[in-house]
Amino acid sequence: MEKVISTCIYCGCGCGLLLHVDGGRIVGASPSLTHPMSRGSLCIKGWLAADFVGHPDRLRSPLIRQGDLLIKSTWDEALALTAASLRSIQKEFGPQALGILTSAKGTNEENYLLMKMARVALGTNNVDHVARLCHAPTVAALGFALGSGAMTGSISSLQSSDAILVVGSNTTEQHPLVASYILRARSRGAKLIVVDPRKTRLAELADLWLSPRQGTDVAWINCLLNIIVKQDLADMQFIKERTYGFVETLHTASAYTAEKAEEISGIPAADLVKAASIFGLAGRGAIVYAMGVTQHFRGTDIVQALANLALVTGNVGRVGTGVYPLRGHQNVQGACDMGALPNVLSGYQQVSSPQVRAKFAEAWGGQLPCEPGLTALEMLWAAESGSLKGLIIVGENPVLSYPHTSRVQKALNELEFLAVCDIFPTETTALADVVLPAACFAEKNGTFTSTERRVQRIRKAVDPPGEARAEMEWICDLTRRLGAIAEYSSPGDVMDEIASLTPIYGGISYERLGPEGLQWPCPTKDHPGTGILHASSFPHGRARLRPVLYLDPPETPDADYPFMLTTGRSMYHFHTGTMTRRTSLLDREVPTPFVEINPEDARLMDIRDGTKVRVETRRGSVSVEARLAEGVSKGDLFLPFHFSEAPANALTAQCLDPVSKIAELKVSAARLKKEAP
Ligand code: SF4
Fold first, then answer.
1. Sign of CA dihedral 83, 88, 94, 99
2. Which atom of ligand 1 is nearest to the CA of 42?
3. Mutation test residue for ligand 1: of 19, 33, 170, 177, the one with most atoms within 8 Å of CB
4. Structural domains in the chain (count)
5. Whose CA is nearest to atom 2 of ligand 1?
6. Nearest CA to 279 among 325, 311, 301, 253?
7. Residue finishing a domain among 465, 483, 501
8. Last residue of a domain, which of 263, 292, 325?
9. Angle of helix 299-312 relative to helix 136-146, nearest 10 degrees?
10. Do 543 and 242 contact (CB within 8 A), yes or no?
């Protein structure tokens, strides 16, 4: 049996694993003992990461729509039709009528090649991916505040913290390996504060659990900052020497007294004072957060408020300190790094900069568009209104994963041409004109970048099924058919080009990426990589504090919709369940959709475990089983979003964060009705 070193396909922890290959088939996966972060551990999804690879549902050949049917075709037919359709739309309506949604599950090299195709072959900056719906506020807010929209420390650094503030993250379930480092710190005496409306497993283990009303984070974070300064616990030397904007930020935060913050958030004032003391007194404080923070219509403000708190306490740039956004997909960090975003090229180099465009144009040949493009949701709404005509979607299932399912379906149906590349049939491939079968992570070479900025390799262990191809092959083929240059001998060749154009990846090459990978910034070939960012300076000199004001969430419970609905993940599934629902042991644990409800609320409505209920919001409704959960606060409902038969995103609100354009996915007024048994 051969063991091939690779990287887990699921969450952003980026654990190292070994794929076990026997007779050309994957027969299992096990942890890599030498991986610097996971160190011989995997969570249940990691152990089962390869189970879906040989599933009989895999897409095996390209498909072309004929009427209501998708008919088997050759690659040449599928790519010829795709190129002709895109060219025709480009000619008639201009490049802005085209767009690409790339994949946070794809490799860095694929994301780079797709954003290159968008810019140099299609002539548009309309390129984006699912980061828009998870950590776009992180990219925007940390980019502004710290000069880099990424995790400032390394995951292992958490074990050296004296106090860890975990916000909006069910870490033990969604990023279990990060949780293991938090718990190591906890066991050596670090204080743990968990802020989450739900009493998660980590909240049960915390020194202090704060349960705010949904959507009130800015109020309580400003309050902590205010108390810390008033109690003389701020790091005034750090503030003076390394930040701008303290006076204005404190002025705004001063309005959020403990009493005021209690009134808004529901967190008792005494607990807010206690949390401020714990965090303010810690020599090394770390802030860990996930999508409970970012998926809000003011997500950028909430992340900025957390960055303000870290900066005012001097908790950036040292081991055990820092701001730790936990990325959901295994390569959402890399897809952002590669410039699969409408306003930046690889390494966050602005498309609006003539110097940057000239550099890329010289390397790629041709001209680059200068106006920032449309974000993911803006592309869909442009399709709905008829101004976007052609779209390529790679490795995403927006029908299920984007807000407002029926509107997304309508938008995709309005397109003149839709090509979708994936490994399995999905709700989105069902709407495509052309379907391209992809290789999965075990069937190709490439790199992923984990949430701690660690660039690491995946390696081909087995062949893709049938006619399925590594995406790099068809992306380059299609780019050439569209008239641009895309000649690479291997993914390593693509990485060499990425390094030559992207300063933060400048020293990275396949030859240097051993089992440990390298953490960016890694600017030169002899640079060891960077575990801790901002140790002595920030990219723009000093960090920027910015005042943030609390605004009420767009919906609050009322007589018609008395519950507050929030959405999220189950430990046993990932995203839209494309892979985990085809992994028998995971699917067996959670085979059907459910909504969690506080037992007291359930009793008042005569609802028991397993009662069929209908969850309704002003956008739609789904039918699911009720689950009584002590951890869910009274008046709240929790609905996982993995299930096509009960799409949570059919219920969520549509308003967008004005800066990052993320949708409000965590706060919706809802009601519950019992269904006939
Ligand atoms: Fe995979 Fe994340 Fe689990 Fe690690 S923690 S094994 S990366 S799902």
1. negative
2. 6
3. 177
4. 4
5. 11
6. 311
7. 501
8. 325
9. 40
10. yes
* 521: preceding bond cis by omega (within 30 degrees): yes
Whichever domain contains 620, its CATH number is 2.40.40.20
User: H helices within 61-135, ranges in order?
Assistant: 75-93, 108-116
For 599-619, give one letter per residue: b (16+ CB within 10 A) or e.
eebbeeeebeeebebebbbeb
- In ligand 1, the atom with minimum distance to the C-alpha of 10 is 8
Token match 């964060």: residue? 657
Of 332, 346, 416, residue with least CA distance to 376: 332
For residues 215 and 292, give the distance between their C-alpha atoms in angstroms, rounded to a whole number: 9
Contact 363, 501 (CB under 8 A): yes
| Lookup: tokens for 88 | 């025709």
| pLDDT of amino acid 199 | 93
326-348 average pLDDT score? 94
C-alpha to C-alpha distance for 526 and 544, rounded to whole angstroms: 31
* Rounded Cα gap, residues 44 and 570, in angstroms: 12
- Residue 650 forms part of a structural domain: yes
Give the C-alpha separation, 41 to 30, whole Å.
9
Residue 404 predicted with pLDDT over 90:
no
Contacts of 407 (CB under 8 A, 6+ apart): 380, 384, 654
Pairing verdict, β 2-7 and 16-22: antiparallel
- For residue 459, being part of any structural domain is answered with yes
Residue 484 in contact with ligand 1 by CB distance below 6 A: no
Is the per-residue pLDDT at 677 higher than 80? Answer: no
- DSSP letter for 106, please: S
> Does any ligand 1 atom lie closer than 6 A to the CB of residue 11?
yes
What is the distance in A from the centroid of ligand 1 to the CA of 506? Answer: 28
Closest Cα partner for 249 from 326, 309, 294? 309
Whether 545 is in a domain gets the answer: no
How does residue 184 score in pLDDT terms, banded at 50, 70 and 90? very high
Same domain as 589, residue 481:
no
* pTM of the model as a whole: 0.93
Same domain, 348 and 301: no
With a cut of 90, say whether residue 440 has pLDDT above it. Answer: yes
Per-residue pLDDT tens over the stretch 23-49: 999 999 999 999 999 899 999 999 999
Q: Judge whether 28 lies within some domain.
A: yes
Whether residues 319 and 192 share a domain: the answer is yes
Rounded to the nearest whole angstrom, what is the distance from the C-alpha of residue 12 to the centroid of ligand 1? 7
Q: What is the CATH number of the domain that holds 19?
A: 2.20.25.90
Question: What is the span of the domain harbouring residue 261?
Answer: 136-325
pLDDT exceeds cutoff 80 at 654 = no
